[in-house]
DNA sequence: GCGAGGCCCACCAGTATCAC
DNA sequence: GTGATACTGGTGGGCCTCGC
């Protein structure tokens, strides 16, 4: 087991005690990475989430959660609220606290960051405290930036772009252009030129989300701007982006952010 | 009374898993 | 890698509550 503490957070790698009985919650953002096989986490308000190999999850401050299962190794970084908020401000993101979506994601740059950190800490020799402090100063800033860039959340209006195989790239472009249309798995598979089983499998492997879930999350992110800056009804906003009724929109919003669209709108206006 | 939003439930499309 | 199938979760519609 290895725990490295730093003024901006904490890094933890362990191969024992991979399940937790107790609910946890504190004031930091948590970056959780699944390096070997499946990991399952549970949030008190948002249900369970499964991470496959190289998928990550970001938990917001004060989210009550516990880890149900981890394969072989737990990799977790706590990033202090103040660092992430400062980075978000410097990047000119919306003037509210970033809230990350409760979804599994995959990103090559974050996978590389984790891999580099593991190599560094597994092979360091006689590193002085000053050296380690300096290394972590920069590493935590890098992670905070990557989280804001590639973690899905309220600070974004579209899903972060990632490098995809060309067979998926065309489908994702079409979904982005026509997100308000009705799509079926068959439509997407035909566009990709593969059968729907292959397509669904590949899509999940590359993005961390199933095709339909990806589209729903994309639609949901699109609605955030309307919720913040207009007085349009929740119903009309939901219909605008392609949801067919308000109840499915409400359900998804609550599962992803732990609050309803009207609560989201209210919290933004309170903090403005 | 009316409209907006939330909750509940049955149905079915989409997803995960397993066998080949 | 592909296809079948059991399971999951999104959808649609009815009903309830709340505020105007």
TrEMBL record:
Which species?
Salinibacillus kushneri
Domain of life assignment:
Bacteria
Record keywords: DNA-binding, Transcription, Transcription regulation
Pfam families per record: HTH_18
**Entry keyword annotation includes Transcription regulation:** yes
Q: Does the keyword Ribonucleoprotein apply?
A: no
Q: What is this protein called?
A: AraC-type DNA-binding protein
Question: What GO terms are given for molecular function?
Answer: DNA-binding transcription factor activity; sequence-specific DNA binding
Looking at the record, the residues that make up the HTH araC/xylS-type domain are: 169-267
């Amino acid at each position: 087991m290895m725990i490295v503490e730093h003024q901006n957070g904490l890094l933890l790698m362990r191969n024992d005690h991979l399940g937790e009985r107790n609910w946890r919650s504190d004031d930091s953002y948590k970056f959780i990475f699944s390096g070997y096989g499946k990991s399952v986490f549970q949030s008190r308000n948002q249900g369970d989430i499964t991470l496959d190999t190289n998928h990550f999850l970001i938990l917001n401050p004060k989210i009550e959660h516990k880890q149900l299962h981890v394969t072989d190794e737990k990799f977790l970084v706590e990033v202090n609220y103040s660092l992430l908020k400062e980075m978000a401000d410097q990047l000119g993101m919306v003037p509210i606290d970033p809230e990350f979506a409760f979804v599994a994601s995959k990103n090559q740059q974050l996978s590389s960051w984790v891999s580099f950190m593991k190599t560094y800490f597994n092979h360091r020799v006689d590193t002085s405290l000053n050296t380690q402090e300096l290394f972590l100063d920069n590493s935590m800033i890098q992670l905070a930036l990557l989280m804001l860039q590639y973690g899905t959340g309220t600070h974004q209006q579209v899903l972060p772009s990632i490098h995809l195989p060309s067979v998926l790239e065309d489908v994702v472009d079409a979904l982005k252009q026509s997100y308000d249309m009705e799509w079926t798995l068959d439509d997407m598979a035909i566009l990709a030129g593969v059968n729907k089983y292959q397509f669904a499998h590949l899509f999940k492997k590359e993005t961390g989300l199933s095709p339909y879930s990806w589209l729903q999350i994309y639609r949901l992110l699109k609605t955030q701007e309307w919720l913040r800056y207009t007085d349009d009804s929740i119903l009309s906003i939901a219909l605008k982006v392609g949801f067919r009724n308000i109840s499915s929109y409400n359900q998804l919003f609550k599962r992803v952010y732990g609050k309803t669209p009207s609560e989201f709108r209210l919290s933004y206006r309170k903090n403005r």
